[in-house]
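explain this chain.
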Amino acid sequence: MQEDILINWAPQETRVAIVENGVLQELHVERTLERGLVGNVYLGKVARVLPGMQSAFIDIGLERAAFLHVADVWHRQPDGEPPGLVRNTLPQVPIEKQVFDGQTLLVQVIKDPIGSKGARLSTQISIAGRMLVFLPQDDHVGVSQKIPSVQRDELRARLVRLIGPSGGGFILRTNGEDANDGELSEDIAYLRKSWARIKEASLRLPPSSLLHQDLNLLQRVLRDLVGEGTQTIRVDSREQFEALQGFGLEFMPAAAAKLQHYHGERPIFDLYSIDEEIARALGRRVELKSGGYLIVDQTEALTTVDVNTGGFVGARNFDDTIFKTNLEAAMAIARQLRLRNLGGIIIVDFIDMVREDHRDAVLAEFRKQLIRDRVKTMAAGCSQLGLVEMTRKRTRESLAHMLCEPCASCEGKGSVKTARSVAYDILREILREARQFNPREFRVVASPKVIELFLDEESQHLAGLSEFIGKPVSLQSETAMGQEQYDIVLI
């Protein structure tokens, strides 16, 4: 499988497309203004200690001072204990006995600033890698609780052997469950080198300086997305290409060797019609080459994918038509899950198949396609209703949630009331208000389509209501209003 990574950079947004054999498979987006501070490490300076709140304000160079609570002050745990903060030790040492005004502290942001509140800090430093989290202040070696318990002891023993005598605490993340020794060793080396740079910067830079920033999307491409099948990584910005090359040569030389600067006349995403693919990925309907189609609906609880034959009638008989449509759909669904970054519970409604061998073949093809997904997936067999239930780990916001927002008119329902339904709502509302108030006139302000209905087909009903309540009803068209929106003004 030939894989290319295309990077489109602009000051306001970075977009990364992963293309396999000329077809877009994944899209990653990072916007400059939406990038948070969580994970950043600063050399903070204590501005003020508040014993009454058991907190301290720390100057880290931001507009507002950050906030350190006594529960987030790190203390070394007894040998063999998991790493932890002071909240795990009793009795708790008051904050005024641990920090003082003017003191410099190595701190890490654990919660972004919200409204008038500053960022929340911790003095326990953790650096995330591709498969491991490094805890330089501890010696504990742990494994994610999400990994089955039967595998944890073996993985912990492997990790202890790879860490060696150099020390430091490490926690194996869930996506490192199937990593080989070489990949884990690379991650350990990268994390230790990152910590060495933080320590060196803390001795060189003045207080309130940023020492370490969590990797941006460009850097995460080299750390997380480059694999053995990656042929090239093309960047359309000379400045970002040089910065990424410098980062790669220091930390990931194998990945850096695949970097190329793209300087073609056409925009880099036009090479594989990426923008058109993104537009299609935001729609409900996905066309299949055979003439069939998928309907993808994302809800809060789960995502449903419905397979339909559409206009496909090319096979010899009805069973073969269904089988071929389902086979093609299995490949298309696996791609759509990656492209749209759909996570959580997913229900796939393949077209009902009578033959068991057809069902087995479609399920086998679906699982085969899911293996290529870098995010952990699990697909069960067909249920009694013919549905395939599966889960896909949530790693980030879905493409639709990242690029779109609920419609201002339908508020995410996907449909709005008809103009006639809204007109009848207005008539009922006028009657309700006429029983409570005694204005000189009622004025209806609504969308042009609703007003047009009142002037034409519903004029008789409006006149009858005006006569019944004994008050005139005037109409005002407002183009800025959605079809369901209206106001009744009492004059």
About this structure: Residues 41-212 form a domain with the OB fold (Dihydrolipoamide Acetyltransferase, E2P) fold (CATH 2.40.50.140). The longest strand covers residues 41-50. Residues 83-90 have pLDDT under 50 and may be disordered. The two ends are 71 Å apart (CA to CA).
